[in-house]
């Protein structure tokens, strides 16, 4: 595995030609339901016991602290006969953001 990937289909862009709309009761309650970020640790520790599939690939998910930042991932692998490998990709930690504009 050479890199990490993510599903870009979940990214939604707002139309540039449509002005913002005032928030409704529904959007206000949806915003209130979003938990506030509170975990800003600089280090996330994850110690899995991963096994390769028949193609020699592995997939996993993990949670990082709430910081909106780039994370350096250090992956170390060791086989039963003590052959090893490392991987050091970066990934972006992000969370959904709600922003509302109140008319002037």
How is the secondary structure organized here?
Layout: H1 25-33, E1 69-72, E2 75-78, E3 84-87, E4 90-93
Antiparallel strand pairs: 1-4, 2-3
Description:
The protein is mainly β and 104 residues long. It has one helix and four strands. It has one helix spanning 25-33; strands spanning 69-72, 75-78, 84-87, 90-93.
Q: What key phrases describe this protein's structure?
A:
single chain, 104 residues, mainly beta, two-stranded antiparallel ribbon, 1 helix, 4 strands, 15% strand, elongated
* Main beta sheet: 2 strands, antiparallel
Poorly predicted runs of 5 or more residues: none
Q: Describe the strand arrangement of the main beta sheet, using strand numbers.
A: 1-4
Gyration radius, in Å: 20 Å
Spell out the helices and strands N to C.
HEEEE
């Amino acid at each position: 595995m050479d890199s990490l990937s993510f599903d870009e289909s979940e990214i939604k862009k707002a139309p540039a030609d449509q002005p913002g709309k005032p928030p409704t009761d529904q959007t206000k309650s949806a915003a209130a339901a979003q938990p506030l970020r509170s975990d800003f640790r600089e280090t996330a520790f994850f110690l899995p016991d991963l096994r390769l599939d028949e193609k020699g690939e592995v997939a996993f998910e993990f949670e990082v602290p709430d910081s909106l930042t780039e994370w350096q991932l250090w992956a170390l692998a060791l086989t039963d006969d003590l052959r090893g490998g490392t991987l050091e990709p970066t990934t972006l930690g992000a969370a959904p953001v709600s922003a509302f504009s109140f008319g002037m």
